[in-house]
Amino acid sequence: MKHIQQFKLIDGTFETEEARNLLLELISYKINFHAKEKFSNQERFGKDVLNSGKRMEELKEEETALRKLLEKVKSENFRLNVKCNIEIEIINQQTK
């Protein structure tokens, strides 16, 4: 088995509103995922062991930048070519 595999998640040309819906929904999903992880870790361990809070802030900054870009191109009536690849690296974790 390959140690690194790639998957094509998004590859297409979209109207601005379609791209906006797709991309903001992805970011929203990731923010919600980290919010649940943070809550779960707070309840179980008393702290955010996976640093989900930090990742949520990073994603919110990305969301703000994306909204600004989408607003700009919307007013200029562009179409957007969006590509999103996922790369997964399989790591052999040694037991202690």
Q: State the major sheet.
A: 2 strands, antiparallel
**N-to-C SSE string, H for helix and E for strand:** EHHE
Strand order of the largest sheet: 1-2
Kindly state the percentage of residues in helix.
Answer: 55-70%
Kindly state the mean pLDDT as a whole number? 90
Total strands: the figure is 2
Question: What is the overall number of helices?
Answer: 2
Strand content: 15-25%
Uncertain segments: none
What's the Cα radius of gyration?
A: 17 Å
- Overall body shape: flat
Q: How far apart are the termini? A: 24 Å
Task: Please state the structural category.
Answer: alpha+beta
Structure notes:
By secondary structure, the protein is an alpha+beta fold. The chain has a domain at 17-78. Helix content is 56%, strand content 24%. The protein has helices at 16-45, 52-75; strands spanning 4-15, 79-89. A two-stranded antiparallel sheet has the order 1-2. Helix 1 (16-45) runs antiparallel to helix 2 (52-75). The model has no long low-confidence stretch (mean pLDDT 90).
Q: Short description, anyone?
A:
This protein is an alpha+beta fold.
Considering the chains and any ligands shown, give keywords for the structure.
two-stranded antiparallel ribbon, alpha+beta, 56% helix, 96 residues
Which helices and strands appear, and what pairs or packs with what?
Layout: E1 4-15, H1 16-45, H2 52-75, E2 79-89
Antiparallel strand pairs: 1-2
Helix pairs in contact: 1-2
